Hints:
The protein contains four helices and six strands; from the N terminus they run αβαααβββββ. It is α/β, with parallel strands linked by helices.
Amino acid sequence: xxxxxxxxxxxxxxxxxxxxxxxxxxxxxxxxxxxxxxxxxxxxxxxxxxxxxxxxxxxxxxxxxxxxxxxxxxxxxxxxxxxxxxxxxxxxxxxxxxxxxxxxxxxxxxxxxxxxxxxxxxxxxxxxxxxxxxxxxxxxxxxxxxxxxxxxxxxxxxxxxxxxxxxxxxxxxxxxxxxxxxxxxxxxxxxxxxxxxxxxxxxxxxxxxxxxxxxxxxxx
Length: 220
């Protein structure tokens, strides 16, 4: 009897049918972010007005690089005036712009990163629904986003804060931004789904997907 019990226990520990049903882990949106040290904004030490104006100069320079602003445009003149003003305040504008560009590139890279420890695990996550695909019985695919208005007011959340949810059974369409709780297996899966926005139709990048076992309205 003891030997039989030990064999049964070993079978369960090694992954027998009764043991493989992994309990879903309740997670928050912050858990989807990579476990990396926080990035330091090179403009953080500046006064508020200086930070705003440095960001305006950086954005204007980017527009110039892309050819959207010409030398004679009012935007170019405004950028020159801001640059002169900041230099007069003792700032090394060009050096700060280089450091800020590096910082922005790292932020964009970080926004696509995932937490590998969550990949292929069952999770439970609450958020707001943006329907993508529907059948006559309800929604079969939707974006799960962390806050109301996400993806409607551009820019959308970072890809690692957008989850594509595929349902096993159609879920009754409760309307855009309905609060739902999703349970299922999470995968690190980069994609871009087309969503009709207020100002047109465009792709929304995502870094995760869930094959949902259960979708329910979250009334908490």
